[in-house]
Design goal:
The structure holds 3 protein chains of 3 kinds. Chain B has 9 helices and 4 strands; from the N terminus they run ααβαβαβαβαααα. Chain B is an alpha/beta fold. By secondary structure, chain C is an alpha/beta fold. The chains are: A alpha+beta, B alpha/beta, C alpha/beta.
């Protein structure tokens, strides 16, 4: 297993731009002796409707001057009861719910849900389907990180990267659109395969995207990576050590920025990830700047993975040849009574899953994304549970911001890359 | 400025069209007021879920909502004209939405973006508001799950059309909102029942679950003491 | 569930931790199943859950240091509710699922927050959705539903999909919540009264926060 540690191209005392961090010999704001005015702490409420909370997160902060004494997050303002709704849906009908849960990386959610169901049912998908799903998941990892990049830049005070990021995102939107017919709510997977095979020319479109994205990332990095304001606002802010991060359940880029090399694509490989050649970026300091670097590098690695997957894309059917789960072809339905009855039964009654349960986790864009499905032998799940990476990541926010400054709360929140649809579910 | 005034001697230089002698334009007050209003719509983005991402996409480089020269995203409800409610609204968020609406000054309009905001969408469940029109008045519904940016832009243009047809004399009467009703639901009980009754797939779900006897809502229980 | 077996399941690679767990805790390990091919599930005595998880987390040969998930499953029909812990050992790359069954009449189990901070919100969610009380949890209150939610625990099987109250009642209750209900008592203690203007039913008519017309 190859792992890579990011070498900082910029030193911790940047020569470019201005350095706003306290240097040695100068007391930082926190160290200055504070005269006792007999003041009392202030309560500040951020959200649930606030442009910097990435949705409807609400934070109640207790402030002593500008220092955060305590931070109490309140969530649930977007609770849409997906898991309850799932108990009233067939196995395949749940797929459209999954992409409305994390609308930043819909294809990853589509894929991991059906992967969990297939594992429980003992269905093995075709080679072509595996590679197509890998392409989908890596494409959406980039898709999600690009949105994070745009909002992150806005939150640290830069607007231009947002426009760069959305220009690239529009290209992914068009790819989604060409494949699935929708820009965000893709619903592209089915138990046993995909909704359809990839259209002609789509692979070329993805290849072109993977070719040119690194150029844009380079341009964005010239704007941010050595920018004095950016460095000053992010380095040493929201630091969490590797041990604390594991204890708090952080996963994904947030955990790796703290120096823990835990990536499910390497550690619990699925879909032949062990045969792909890619590296997992690891941070050193566990601060906001490292999370930024890790995600930027992950996007480049995903581009490389996209190329490798496209190179090995095999021919053959996209769906398994298993009449229990896959609908017969339209021609058969129209010409053959048995196929039509079969089609009717599969659509009306839904796919039947045997009794059992399965927990299947992949490396989502936000962290360890697991789906836990329990079946009692019927066509609807007894329980469909999502192991929500952002939910667990966000639960560490109090630890990250307490003792810091009020302005850093926004930066820390942005660096965690949360999506409220999945936190509240 | 004073130089110009002195040279002209007539008080006004360069009217609406060109320079020279003062020019005049006669029109209806309604037209001028509506012209000003519809070309300076300031949206208040109330984004919650997937639709908010499409709203961001419409404001970003490719779609560029600002190309009409009339929108300026106002993140404070006090300085906004159009509330764009993008995404699903659970009951926990409903009072927040209502409060933001109450805080917006008149005249104000509301765009309900997406299926969930308009009708609850697929989320016919215990936690979701079945259409924000039970909470606040809505002017334009944009269908889609989520609507494409073109849809949102068209929705805003529909608001402009609506403003064009309004009349100052009748505006107050149309738009009157009783301050005592601030923080109250827009729709009464019967209306909520009619708007949010189970239909289609939802009815089938309830029957198959055997939890609801005759499709009617369960009887309220007393409050927890 | 797959067939319940008392002995070690056959035909799959035995899990390295399960025999050691049996040795260390004996009768508290109720049974062991293998599901979906290679996933090992161990049912344990709920009373000793913290002890067992602490052993799993801290024994050097096992080191299940990453708590992926805490959740619960209600099978309906008055059957016991299962509390499910998904564990993972980053060092050994082993996964293990621990389950504790709680009778529906007595939904109480010890909290594992002292072991993992990650369990904090996950246990709150299980409390909110299933009504399982976690003894010793530092801050056990509803997390997704409003604090004053009066309809019960939504993910229980006996909870109707559309809620217990009518839509009109649900809407009315949602909008008539007091601003103070949005704060927890600890908030109010810290900062005094939240700076909210009461904007309904003030004696001298509508206050400053009403509409500008």
């Amino acid at each position: 297993m190859t792992k890579k540690t990011i070498e900082y191209e910029v030193s911790r005392t940047p020569e470019l731009g201005m350095d706003f961090r306290p240097t040695e010999g100068v007391l930082s704001a926190a160290e200055l002796p504070e005269p006792d005015f007999g003041s009392e702490n202030m309560l500040i409420n951020i959200g649930p409707q606030h442009p910097a909370t990435h949705g409807v997160l609400r934070l109640v902060l207790e402030l002593d001057g500008e220092t955060v004494v305590r931070c109490v997050p309140h969530i649930g303002y977007l609770h849409s009861s997906f898991e309850k709704l799932g108990e009233y849906r067939d196995w395949n009908q749940i797929v459209p719910l999954t992409d409305r849960m994390d609308y930043l990386a819909p294809l990853i959610y589509n894929c991991v849900y059906v992967m969990a169901v297939e594992k429980m049912m003992g269905v093995t998908v075709t080679e072509r389907c595996k590679v197509v799903r890998v392409i989908c998941m890596e494409l959406d990892r980039v898709f999600s990180h690009l949105l994070w990049l745009g909002t992150w830049a806005i939150d640290v005070g830069a607007f231009t990267p947002f426009l760069y990021a959305f220009q690239e995102r529009e290209r992914v939107y068009r790819l989604h659109d060409a494949f699935t017919g929708a820009r965000i709510t893709t619903s592209a997977t089915r138990v046993g395969g995909m909704m359809a095979d990839i259209p002609d020319g789509w692979a070329e479109g993805v290849r072109q995207f993977a070719d040119t994205l690194p150029n844009t990332l380079d341009e964005v990095e010239t704007l941010l990576s050595t920018n004095g304001i950016h460095l000053g606002r992010t380095q040493g802010v929201g630091v969490i050590s590797g041990e604390d991060a594991i204890n708090s359940g952080l996963s994904g880029p947030n955990l790796r920025a703290s120096g823990v090399p835990y990536d499910l694509r390497k550690d619990r490989p699925y879909y032949d990830y062990e045969t792909y050649d890619f590296e997992v970026p690891i941070g050193e300091h566990g601060d906001c700047y490292d999370r930024y670097l890790v995600r930027m590098e992950e996007m480049r690695q995903s581009c490389s993975l996209l190329h490798q997957a496209l190179d090995r894309l095999p021919d053959g059917p996209i769906n398994v040849d298993d009449p229990r789960v896959v609908l017969p072809s339209k021609t058969d339905c129209m010409n053959d009574m048995e196929s039509m009855i079969h089609h009717f039964k599969l659509v009306m009654e839904g796919v039947k899953a045997p009794e059992g349960e399965s927990y299947f986790a992949v490396e989502g864009s936000k962290g360890e994304l697991g789906m836990y499905v329990v079946s009692d032998g019927g066509s609807k799940p007894v329980r469909w549970r999502v192991r929500p990476p952002s939910f667990v990541n966000l639960s560490a926010i109090s630890k990250l911001v307490e003792g810091g400054l009020l302005a850093d709360v926004i930066v820390v929140n942005a660096s965690l890359d949360i999506v409220l649809g999945e936190i509240d579910r | 400025m004073s130089d110009d005034l002195k040279t002209s001697g007539s008080g006004l230089v360069g009217g609406l069209f060109g320079t020279g002698t003062p020019t005049f334009l006669t029109t209806k007050v309604d037209f001028v007021v509506n012209w000003a209003r519809r070309n300076s719509l300031w949206p208040m983005p109330f984004g919650t879920a997937c639709c908010a991402i499409e709203m961001m996409a419409s404001a970003a480089s490719d779609q560029d909502l600002a190309r009409f020269g009339m929108e300026r995203m106002a993140f404070s409800p006090r300085q906004a004209d159009v509330l764009i409610c993008a995404g699903r609204v659970p009951y926990k968020l409903a009072p927040v939405l209502r409060r933001i609406w109450d805080q917006m000054p008149q005249p104000k309009w509301c765009v309900s973006m997406g299926a969930c905001a308009s009708s609850g969408g697929v989320f016919d469940v215990y936690s979701m508001v079945q259409g924000i029109d039970t909470i606040i008045p809505v002017d334009v519904y944009v269908p889609g799950c989520p609507p494409r940016p073109e849809g949102l832009i068209y929705g805003l243009m529909m608001i402009q059309e609506k403003v064009r047809g309004e009349s100052l004399t009748r505006h107050a009467e149309h738009r009157f909102e009783d301050p005592d009703q601030a923080g109250r639901p827009e729709a009464d009980d019967e209306e909520v029942r009619a708007l949010s009754g189970p239909f289609g797939n939802s009815t089938r779900q309830e029957e198959s679950a055997g939890l609801v006897s005759e499709g009617g809502p369960a009887t309220p229980r007393p409050l927890i003491p | 569930m797959t067939e319940l077996v008392q002995s070690e399941p056959e035909g799959v690679g035995a899990h390295p931790t399960v025999p050691a767990l049996r040795e260390a805790f004996g009768d508290s390990i109720l049974r062991h199943e293998v599901v979906a091919g290679d996933e090992h599930v161990v049912f344990v005595e709920p009373l000793r859950i913290v002890e067992i998880l602490r052993w799993l987390k801290e024994t050097p040969a096992h080191l299940y240091d990453f708590l992926s998930d805490v959740t619960a499953v209600d099978y309906g029909g008055g059957r016991p509710i299962q509390v499910v812990y998904q564990l993972y050992s980053i060092q050994h790359r082993w996964a293990l699922r621990i389950k504790a069954e709680l009778p529906i009449s007595e939904l109480e189990i010890d909290s594992v927050v002292p072991l993992w901070d990650a369990a904090n919100w996950l246990e709150r969610e299980v409390f909110d959705m299933f009504g399982v009380t976690f003894r010793g949890h530092p801050d056990l209150r509803r997390i997704l539903m409003p604090e004053t939610y009066a309809e019960g625990h939504p993910l229980r099987k006996d909870f109707p999909l559309r809620g217990r109250f009518t839509r009109a009642e649900q809407t009315r209750r949602a909008l008539s919540r007091e601003p103070k209900d949005y704060y927890i008592p600890a908030d109010l203690e810290a900062g005094g009264e939240p700076q909210l203007v009461r904007w309904q039913e003030t004696p001298e008519g509508p206050s400053e926060e009403s509409n500008d017309r």
